[in-house]
C-alpha cells in the first residue's frame, strides 16, 4: 500500500487524480473503470474539503492505494467533522429541470461507480474505504 | 482546464478542454454566467477536448440551463462528448435535460 | 468526390471531399443548385476533406455565389481550406469574393 | 519518356492525374509543385475534351511524361480542332462578382503554374508541351 498526504485544497485534486489513475492502471482496471475511480475519488475529496473541513487549507487528505487480487482499494482519511452517510438520500434523477437540485450528485456517483464503499468515523479521524474490482476476464 | 468563448450570430460557443473538477468548475461557471448576464441564452458547450468532469462541473451546466430555459428564451446544448463524459452525464440523469450533438457545427446549426 | 448536405436552421452545409474536376464538378453544381432552388441562399461549403479542385469546380462556386448574393438574400462561404485549395482560389482571384472560415463551426456561426 | 493513351472522357481525368502525380514525384518536385502540375494537366485535358473534341468519346488523349535534369516535362497530344492560344486573353481577376466570367480560368492556371508552355498545331495533331522545374535546392 502506498499512502500520500495532500493539503486539503482544491488544487490538490489533479495530483490526487494522477496518483489514483496510476494505481488503478497498475491494478489492471479497464480504461472506463479507471475513469469511474477517478470520478469517485474526486467527489470524495471535494466533499472532504467542502463538508468535513468546511473550506480549503483546514486539514490534510491522506490517500492510500492498495492493489489487491480483485482490483484496487482506496482509503481516504481526513480529520474534519464526521457525518452520517445513511442520512444522505439519493438525488431524484427524474425531477424536472426546475426542480432538479444543483447538489447531491457526488455521493451518488461514489455509490454507483464503486463496487464497495465503507465510511468509518473515529474521534478525530474519518475513513472512507472504496474498492473497484477488475472486470470478469473470462 | 482551458475555456475558449466565441460569440456567433445566433449562439455562443464555449469550448472547454482538460479537467473540470471542483477547482476549475468555478471558471466554467463564470464563463457561462458572463454570457447569460449579457442577455445571451443560446449556448453550445463543446466538450470534444474534455478529459474529466466532476459533479461540480455538472452543477455549472444545470444552473446555466435553468437560467437559459427561463421564459423560453434559449437553452444550453452540448456537443462532442467523449465516451467517459457521456457516461457521467448519463449517470447524473442529465441526458433528458440537454440536447446533445455529435459536433459543434451541428450544435451551432441547430440555433 | 463525395458530397454530404446538411440543412441547418440558418444555413446549409455542403461538405465536399476528394477530387472536384470536370467529371465531378457537375454533381457539386447540382447539389448547390438544389439548395438555391429550394429558396435557401446561405451556404457553407466545407472543404476540409477536399484533395483537388479544378476551374470546373470554381465555376460551380462562382455561379452559386452570383445566385446567392442577388437581392442581398444570402451568400456562399467556404471553410476548412487545405493549403493547395487555398492557393488555387487565390490564383483564381476568388479570395475577395468569398468569406473564408477556418472551420465549419465558425462558418455556420456566421449566419 | 513514358507515354500513355487515354480515352477522351472526363472520367479519364483521375487516371491521368495519378500518372502525372507519380511522374512528378519521381522527378523530385515539391508537394505544392506536384499539385500545380496536376492542376495544369487537368485543365489542359478538360480543354481537349471540351474544346478540341467538342465532347466526350470523340478522340484520345496521349500523355507523355519526361523526367529531365531540371524537373518534369509533360506532352499532351490530341487529334481535335486546333486553336490560337494567342487570341485567348487572361481573365479579369479584378472585376466584380456580377461581371466575373464563369469561364476562362483553365488556360490562365496553366500559364501561371507551369514554367514553360508551348502549343504546336500540325494537321491532325495538336501538341501541348509544358514543363515544371524543381525548386532551387540551395
Ligand atoms: N466527507 C463529508 N463530510 C461531511 N459531510 C459530507 C461529506 N460528504 C458528503 N457529506 C454530506 O452529504 C451531502 C451530499 O454530498 P454530495 O452527494 O457529494 O453532494 P454535494 O457535495 O453537492 O452536496 C453534502 O451536502 C454533505 O452534507
Ligand atoms: N485544347 C483546346 N482546343 C481548342 N480550344 C481551346 C483549347 N483550350 C482552350 N481553348 C479555347 O480557349 C478558351 C479559354 O480556355 P480556358 O481558359 O481553359 O477556359 P474555359 O475552358 O473555361 O473556357 C476556351 O473557351 C476555348 O475557346
Task: Name the beta content range of chain A.
Answer: 25-35%
Secondary-structure class of chain A: alpha+beta
| Rg from Cα of chain A | 15 Å
Q: What is the CATH homology-level superfamily of chain B? A: STAS domain
Helix % of chain B is 25-40%
Q: Mind summarizing the main beta sheet of chain B?
A: 6 strands, mixed
Kindly report how far apart the N and C termini of chain B lie: 26 Å
Structure in words:
The complex is a heterotetramer, with 2 copies of chain A (138 residues) and 2 copies of chain B (111 residues). Chain A has 138 residues and is α+β, with helices and mostly antiparallel strands. Chain A has a single domain, classed as Heat Shock Protein 90 (2-Layer Sandwich). Chain A is built from 3 helices and 5 strands, in the order E-H-H-E-E-H-E-E. In chain A, a hairpin with a 2-residue loop joins strand 4 and strand 5 (125-133). In chain A, helix 1 runs antiparallel to helix 2 (31-52). The longest helix of chain A has 22 residues, at 31-52. The radius of gyration of chain A is 15 Å and the shape is globular. In chain A, 36% of the residues are buried. By secondary structure, chain B is an alpha/beta fold. In chain B, helix 1 runs parallel beside helix 2 (55-69). Chain B has one domain: STAS domain (Transcription Regulator spoIIAA). In chain B, strands 1, 2, 3, 4, 5 and 6 form a 6-stranded mixed sheet that branches. In chain B, 39% of the residues lie in helices and 28% in strands. In chain B, helix 1 links the parallel strand 2 and strand 3 (42-46). Chain B has 4 helices and 6 strands; from the N terminus they run E-E-H-E-E-H-E-H-E-H. Chains in contact: A-B, B-C, C-D. Chains A and B meet through helix 1, helix 2 and helix 3 of A and helix 2 and helix 3 of B. The structure holds adenosine-5'-diphosphate (2 copies).
